[in-house]
Amino acid sequence: MSYQREFPRRLKVALVGAGSHSYRNLLPAMNFLPVTLVAVCDINESLAAATARQYGATAYSSTRDLYAREALDAVFIAVSPYLHPQLACEAFDAHLHVWLEKPPAIRADEVKEMILHRGERISVVGFKKAFMPGTEKALEIFADPQHAPIRSILAEYPMSIPADGERVLREREFTNWLGNGCHPLSFMLAVGGAVRAVCVHRGAHGGGVCVLEFTSGAIGTLHLADGGNSTQPLERYSVFGKDCQLVIDNSSRVIFQRGIPFAYGQTTSHVPAGMESGAVVAVTLQAADKGDTTTMDATLIEAGMAVAELVVEQAESHSEENKINLHGIDELVADKGYLSLSLIHI
Ligand SMILES: NC(=O)c1ccc[n+]([C@@H]2O[C@H](COP(=O)([O-])OP(=O)(O)OC[C@H]3O[C@@H](n4cnc5c(N)ncnc54)[C@H](O)[C@@H]3O)[C@@H](O)[C@H]2O)c1
Question: Which residue's alpha carbon is nearest to atom 18 within ligand 1?
Answer without folding.
Answer: 19
